[in-house]
Amino acid sequence: MKCLLRFSTWILCTSTLPCVAQLPIDINVEYATFMYDKSESMVELYLAIGAASLDYAAQGEGFAATVEAGFGLWRASDATLEGTPEDAVWSTATTLEFTTDDTTRLAEGQYHMRQLRITAPPGEYELRVAAQAATGQIVEVRRDIIVPAYFTSGGCTFSDITLATSIARTDDRDSPFFKNGLMIQPNANLLFGEGMSRLWYYAEAYDPDCAASANDSYTLLAFVSEANAPMPIGALQRRTVRQVRSVDVLAGSFSLDALPSGSYFLRLVLLDESNESQAEQSQKFFVFNPSVITEQPEAPVAQTFETSEYATMPAEELAAGLEHILIVATEAEVQRLERIQDLNERRRFLMDFWLKRDPEPGTPANEYRETFYTLLGYANERYSTRSEEGWRSDRGRILIKYGQPSSIDPHLYETGYKPYEVWSYNTIAGEGQAEFIFADLDGFGVFELIHSTVSGERKLADWETELQSTRF
Question: What is the span of the domain harbouring residue 176?
Fold first, then answer.
C-alpha cells in the first residue's frame, strides 16, 4: 500500500486500507486566540509530537526524524456565527525536523514542540492537522475553534489562556516562542505534574477599564480549582492590583507539586471595586503526580436508614434539602417525591437520592453531594440579592446543575443593550458545547436565563432582539 499526503485536498490514499499505522505518531494540538486588528484575530497553534514515537536516522553526530505536516482552517460544518467565511481561510504544508543526541534516552512524556501563528476573521472553524512520518504513518487531528471578534466585543474581556512549561524574559525576537518580551514554551498536551510541577500561564486582558477604580487600577484574581468545583484550592490563588492598559499582558505561575493526579482548571477573573466579576476565562489541564498520596478515609461502617443522619433530620432541614435537590432531580424523582407525605419516608427518599449519585459508595464521603453543596455555597456568595438567595437564581441554578462554565463573557455597559452575560461550556454531558444567555431585563440587577442551547432549558430564537434597549 502506498499513501500520499495531499494537502490541497487533504489526505488521499491509493488503497482502501487505512493509512494509519498500528503505532501512530503521538501528536497533541492546542490553540489560543488573541486580539490582532479590526478584521482579524491572532490564532496560535501549539503542536507537541512525542519524541519516542518517531523513527530517527543518524545525522552528523546525532539523530534526526522528519515529519511531513499539513495544516488547514475550515469553516465548521455547523457554524452559526455570522461572518464566518465559507471557504478555507488558511492551509499550508511543511516539513518538520526533530533532532536528538541520543535516541536511547527518549522516553514517554518527552515532546518536541512547534508553534505557528496565523490570523483569521472571527468565526467558527475546524482546525485540521495531518502528520506523516518517514515510515508512512499518517495521523489526522481535528479541533473545533472559535475565533472571537476582540475589537468589537465591547467592555472587558480576556484572550484565551496559553499554558506553558516555562516563561522567561528575552530579547530573542527571532524565536517563534517570543511574545511581548517573553519566551513562552507552550504545553500542548496540557499535562503537568511529576517532572513538570510548575504551571506557567500567559493571557491578555483587553480594555480592563470597565473595572477600573478611582486610581485607574483593577484587580486580577488568578487561581487553580478542581475541575468540578469553582473554588480556589488552598494557596493556589493570587490577587494582584494592576494598572489599566488597553492591552494588559498577564503572566504568572503556580507550583503543582502538592496536587494529586486529576483534572483542574486555571481561572482568571477581572474584578471591580465591588469585587464583582467583569470578565472571566479558564483553561483545563491535567496533573499526574503518582507520588502524591491522598489520605484514604477509613472504610465506613455499613449504615442503615435508622443509623443515618437522615433518620433524625429536623423537618426544616429536610424541607430545605428536598428543595435543593429539585435542581438536579429527574422528572420521575420529582413526581415520586410529590406523592410521598410521610415525614420518615421523605427522609428516606433524600438519603436514597444522594446514595444513588455517590461515585464511590465504599467511602464515607459522598463526592457528588459535596460538590453540589460547594457549588450551592458559591452561588449564594456570588449571586444573592436582597430579595433572593443565589442558589435560587437562574445563574445559581445553572452553576449548580452544570458546574462552572469554561468562560463567562459579560456585557454590562453596552450602549443600546440591557446588561447580559454569555456563559460558554466546552462540554456538557449529552450536549457537547453549550451556551447560556442571562440578561438583566428590568434593570434591577437580577439576571434571568433568556436563552440556552441545552435541551430542556429556555430557548428564545430572537434573544439578541430581546437585549436591545433604549431605557438604560
Answer: 154-294
